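Example record

The entry below shows one chain as it appears in the dataset: sequence first, then structure tokens.
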Amino acid sequence: MSIQIGQPAPDFSLFNTDKKEIKLSELKGKNVVLLFIPFAFTGVCTAELCGVRDNLSFYNDTNAAVFGISVDTPFTLKRWKEDQSYNFDLLSDFNKEAMHAYDCTYESFAMGMRGVAKRSAFVIDREGIVRYAEVLEDAGNVPDFDAIQNCLQSLN
């Protein structure tokens, strides 16, 4: 079942690039932006997260924590984060639990790969309620960042 606006966000526990466990439920009191991406080091994913990196002050000003999430290992994500100077956490969903909970999984992807995250964006408010949800079928597209930013502004 797809995530609906107004429902409680599914909780998850994932590791960041410093091997620190991040639990969504422990972020209450802060707005959260979840950006699911298929893979590190790919063109569209890199461009998407570089755009977030370059506009992080907006997210900070709206009391939002941003997380990029993929099935890559924390070690791969650490290298990518260093290479691109990302200034927000990247989380490894290696076991594919979060992307299944958020119903954003490609059953079949390029080159016969299975279980890759669909490019998706979710905004979760301070109380843990989903306020924006966008799941893209075409991995070549990026989320509507104007809509994401408008949503965050409306929460403040």
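Notes for this example: The first strand starts at residue 13 and ends at 16. The CA atoms of residues 42 and 109 lie 14 Å apart.
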